[in-house]
Write a structure and sequence with these properties.
This protein starts with a strand and ends in an 11-residue tail after the last strand. It is built from ten helices and ten strands. It has two domains: about 180 residues, Rossmann fold; about 100 residues, Pantoate-beta-alanine ligase, C-terminal domain (Pantoate--beta-alanine Ligase, Chain: A,domain 2), CATH 3.30.1300.10. α6 packs across α7 and α9 runs antiparallel to α10. The strands form two sheets. Strands 1-2-5-4-3-6-7 form a seven-stranded mixed β-sheet, with helices on both faces. Strands 8-9-10 form a three-stranded antiparallel β-sheet.
């Protein structure tokens, strides 16, 4: 355990458990923000929301190896702990948990948490390992810290639903709070991976938000799913994206596909997109709701 100008940095699960238990004994409500570091304004907004909903805010910094496949960017994932700790201190965190891999996955570890159905579609279809890794690490962090509230960004909307389902299924007494996506001036969702974009790619990246907003508007206006989704795919390819992995309009609560040619009226939907620009994979999502369609008067 060490201090950083009043903010505690806890580096073992025993220290984390002991400090969290001390706070609970004192009746202090903890709002928790799990991160993999490489922090940006979106993360700091989650900390602010945690402070609004609880007595103190806590965060974790842990680059989770189980959510990376062998060909993905674990070794090159951006890391700057000193910078991240300074940002979290300035944002008002009371403590930060920075565990080792061995604290999260002890030697001989063979336990994983799998949230079926939600984990196998969309991101789970493209990255089959991903949500197992996410659920496994978040469950461990929850056990180590026992927070009252945990805050996750809606930018990773499917992840938010997976964690809500896991928390409900395991009966964990933790409120899961979703926070609106923080965006750059051109609409690009803030993400740690945006640093991988070249200057030219960054100039093109805002097209993802443009295609998404146009698609959502079309769905709300009654366009067919095929037409709206097809137009979004074409817009991304015209903007210079090399591949569009998916553009999907789903139910917001379960991510189940809609039945029928168009989004049903007065049902909350979620538009989810993933596309590649250079070596960077960008994901985003947006809520939408088709209005009730006026009924035609009966002929007399």
């Amino acid at each position: 355990m060490d201090g950083s100008a009043g903010m505690l940095v806890l580096r073992t699960r025993s220290a984390a458990r002991a400090y969290a238990a001390e706070l609970r004994r004192d009746g202090v409500r903890v709002g928790f923000v799990p991160t993999m570091g490489a922090l940006h304004e979106g993360h700091l907004g989650l900390v602010q929301l945690a402070l609004e909903r609880a007595d103190v805010a806590a965060a974790s910094i842990f680059v989770n190896p189980t959510q990376f496949a062998a060909h993905e960017d674990l070794s090159t994932y951006p890391r700057d702990e000193a910078r991240d700790l300074n940002l979290l201190r300035e944002a008002g965190c009371r403590f930060v948990y920075c565990p080792s891999v061995e604290d999260i996955y002890p030697p001989g570890d063979s336990t994983r948490v799998i949230v079926r159905d939600l984990s196998s579609m969309l991101e789970g279809a493209v990255r089959p390992h991903f949500f197992e890794g996410v659920a496994s690490v978040v469950a461990r962090l929850f056990v180590h810290l026992s927070p009252d509230i945990a805050v996750f960004g809606e930018k990773d909307y499917q992840q938010l639903l997976v964690i809500r389902r896991m928390t409900q299924d395991l009966g964990l007494p933790i409120e899961i709070v979703g926070a609106p996506t923080r965006r750059e001036s051109d609409g690009l969702a803030m993400s740690s991976r945006n640093v991988y974009l070249s200057a030219d790619e960054r100039a093109r990246a805002g097209a993802l938000y443009g295609a998404m907003t146009a698609c959502a508007a079309g769905l709300e206006a009654g366009e067919t799913l095929d037409a709206a989704v097809g137009a979004a795919r074409e817009a991304l390819l015209r903007a210079g994206f090399q591949a569009v992995e998916y553009v999907e309009a789903r139910r917001a609560d379960t991510l189940a596909p809609f039945v029928g040619p168009a989004a049903p009226p007065e049902v909350d939907g979620r538009l989810l997109m993933a596309a590649r620009l250079g070596r960077t994979r960008l994901i985003d999502n947006m809520g939408f709701r088709a209005p009730r369609r006026p009924t035609r008067p009966k002929r007399s």
